[in-house]
Design brief:
Elements: E1 2-3, H1 4-11, H2 18-27, E2 32-33, H3 38-57, H4 67-79, H5 89-92
Parallel strand pairs: 1-2
Helix pairs in contact: 1-2, 3-4
Length: 101
């Protein structure tokens, strides 16, 4: 399963479009969760807020990570069994219980 933000990001990859992504995900039996539930949004809000506080307190400035990263990771933690990413370090601190590939 992928969350709606992942579907949107995949659709913006050069050479891909909405139809191709839907077809490819369907062929791999990967569902798209367009209905992100309240628990996903609450976890994203809590972890993003904690990250923002940590970033400001560190003296390096305003938060640099994007909110969709927190929504995607929250969805993966609560609704799937792992998150495939090319940047595991991006999620490890804020989502220590999330299985990362």
């Amino acid at each position: 399963m992928v969350s709606a933000p992942v579907f949107v990001e995949l659709s913006a990859v050069p050479g891909l479009n909405v139809q191709l992504v839907r077809k490819a995900l369907g062929e791999m039996s990967i569902a798209i969760d367009f209905d992100l539930e309240e628990d996903v949004w609450l976890l994203a809000a809590e972890t993003f807020a904690a990250y923002a506080i940590r970033r400001r307190r560190s003296g390096v400035g305003s938060p640099k990570r994007l909110l969709p990263d927190f929504v995607i990771a929250s969805h993966a933690l609560l609704k799937a069994d792992r998150l495939m990413t090319r940047d595991a370090s991006r999620y490890a601190q804020d989502f220590p219980n999330l299985r990362l590939l």
